[in-house]
Amino acid sequence: MQNRSVFLLSVLCFGFAFLYVPILIMMAYSFNASRLATVWGGFSTQWYGKLLENDQVIDAALLSLQIAVVSASFATLLGTLAGLTLARLGRFKGRTLFSGMISAPLIMPDVITGLSLLLLFVSLETLIGWPSGRGATTVTLAHITFSMAYVAVIIQSRLTSMDNSVEEAAMDLGSTPLRVLWDITLPIIAPAMVSGWLLSFTLSLDDLVIASFTNGPGSTTLPMLIFSKVKLGVTPDINALATLIVGVVTIGVVVAGFLMFRAEKQRNRDVQAAIAGNQ
User: Alpha helix locations (H) across 89-173?
Assistant: First the structure.
């Protein structure tokens, strides 16, 4: 039994090391004084200064953040509605088709999704004149399309495991379905909505393939810019950029986790207070 525990612990440590050690190495080499990204030439922060002076990188980063925020917000809204539909409406006509359409982006290769959306946008432009060319708008719509599927799965899972007695008790006390949704259901699934938003934000910020199909001239996203730079040779400013992204994402996850933990703790206090008051 002890040997088995040691083996499982070793495998776990190896897995985490395989995942995080390259990231730590990349972050260390972002402070490399040498122009060669793989040759250590001493400690220096010059690449961070040069990165902040690069207007092309700044514009691409701001565009990617804008697209990620907008697409994540709409994907969370639409995905929540889809998850509520699948979890609360039971067996309705067309449920199988609707569920299949929600699940399709999860298993569809990015190349197929990007090509399909490209053909869709080209056909719409030919038929109705919108969108007039491809750019940030089409990339945002494409990211909403596949991100909402992930949010719907998260929301449906949370609603399926949720105790419905609280909602039923609220309706027995005279609350309308809309009031129950606003006061009971949404606060309970709020952590799942936050998780879905963060996942959608990350997927949008990380996407390269679909954005390459649905993008146009003059609206280069950050992953596309990084990919174009990597093809010409990796320089330490790419490591600096990646380090900043890792830092921002880490801070966002920590803050979101803290807020979710505090909200969950407050809900538990409210439930215990309500139970004590009834007794």
Answer: 95-107, 110-128, 136-160, 165-172
Q: What range defines the domain where residue 263 resides?
A: 61-274
* Segment 210-242, tens digit of pLDDT: 999 999 887 889 899 888 877 777 778 888 888
- Evaluate whether residue 155 is within a structural domain: yes
Within 8 A by CB and 6+ apart from 52, the residues are: 58
User: For the domain that residue 147 is a member of, what is the CATH number?
Assistant: 1.10.3720.10
Q: Which residue has the tokens 């890792």?
A: 246
Show Cβ contacts of residue 201 under 8 Å, excluding neighbours closer than 6 positions.
68, 69, 72
Reported as a single tens digit per residue, the pLDDT across 129-139 is: 888 888 899 99
Give the total number of structural domains in the chain.
1
Nearest to 105 by CA among 127, 78, 87: 78
DSSP string, 196-236: HHHHHHHHHHH--HHHHHH--TT---HHHHHHHHHHT---H
CB atoms within 10 A of CB 249: 15
